[in-house]
Amino acid sequence: MISFENTPLRRSVLAALLLACAALCHPAAILAEPVQVRYAEGLVHGFLSLRALDGTLVANGDLLQVARGDRVTARLIFRFKDGSLSDETAVFSQRGQFRLLSSHLVQKGPTFKTPLDATIDGASGQVTVRYVDDGKQKVEAERLELPPDLANGMILTLLKNVRPSAPPASLSMVAYTPKPRLVKLALSVAAEDRFATGGTARKATHYVVKIEIGGLSGLIAPLVGKQPPDSHVWVLGGDAPAFVKSEAPMFLGGPVWRIELVSPTWPKAAASGNKTGK
User: Fold this and answer.
1) Mean of pLDDT values over 121-144
2) In 136-261, where does DSSP find H-type helix?
3) 3-state secondary structure of 17
4) Closest Cα to residue 140, out of 148, 150, 130?
């Protein structure tokens, strides 16, 4: 049996234990490095589809983004076939590093088991979640110690800027359960997957994003079937990286859905009118 008296070894062990406790209490505060800006964001309007993994269309979406100076506002909207709505707006700065300034997420309608309206104030750390439970309006409000690598509403932007050969080990995110809590997103590269556009062969980096709940809850979650499924994101590399598709749940306990870019379709009358010059 080893006895730890007041020795350098004892002090080292105690320091390690204190560090471990701090990591459990504030996991996001350790090694939370923001992603460097390699490609500045600008004006974007992207057309998106949200589908089940079997190809069934669930919702149509828009990605709307504007930049004013080093401040970017990105809004991701999905309008569901059953009338539901998911509307997420992230405001972030891009002065050398990406930093989340604020976030606003609205999810409502029959698709969402727990309709919610959640806001994050990056400066103050104030997180407010308004939600409906058993037909009653409830509010969860907490002031969190938000880490500099917070990624709410920014995952696609951040993955376009990381180096596939050396992605960050993790990012941070506020998850709504509906009570807000900080979780880690462990990042890894699965492979380079082939795809094609108009007959041209291309390759996209396949990122895997795993939610690490942390603490005692994280140990229990896989045992009770509450560990969220991994998310997958494909990004085209090169001089102008681009989002290709993702497969991920949109809310806690929700199914995995696929987001892809879509092209406009034109009525036949309009197409024939162009051919005749009318």
Assistant:
1) 95
2) 155-161, 215-220
3) helix
4) 130
Residue in this structure with the two tokens 């979780």, named with its chain if needed: 183
Number of Cβ atoms within 10 Å of the Cβ of 29: 15
Work out the number of other CB atoms within 10 angstroms of the CB of residue 11: 11
Q: Of how many residues is the chain composed?
A: 278
* Two structure tokens written together for 241: 């990286």
Helix (H) or strand (E) holding 77, with range, is strand 71-80
Query: What's the pTM value of the predicted model, to 2 decimals?
Result: 0.82
* Structure confidence at residue 101 as a pLDDT band (50, 70, 90): very high
Which residue has 């949109």 as its token pair? 250
Contact residues for 133 (Cβ-Cβ < 8 A; gap 6+):
114, 178
Question: Cα Rg for the chain, rounded, in angstroms?
Answer: 22
What is the Cα–Cα distance from 132 to 140, expressed in whole angstroms? 11
Instruction: Give the range among 127-141, 146-160, 210-224 with minimum mean pLDDT.
Output: 210-224
Q: How far apart are CA 275 and CA 278, in angstroms?
A: 8
- Is domain 32-263 given the CATH code 2.40.360 in the classification? yes
CA distance 134 to 138: 10
DSSP letter at 28?
Answer: G
Question: What integer pLDDT is reported at residue 177 of this predicted model?
Answer: 87
pLDDT in tens, 261-276: 999 999 987 655 565 5
Structure tokens of 243? 């989002």
Specify the pLDDT at position 82: 98
Per-residue pLDDT of 17-44, as tens digits, reads: 344 444 444 444 445 799 999 999 999 9
Q: What is the DSSP letter of 218?
A: H
Q: Helix, strand or coil for residue 197?
A: strand
d(CA 138, CA 116): 9
Domain ranges of the chain: 32-263
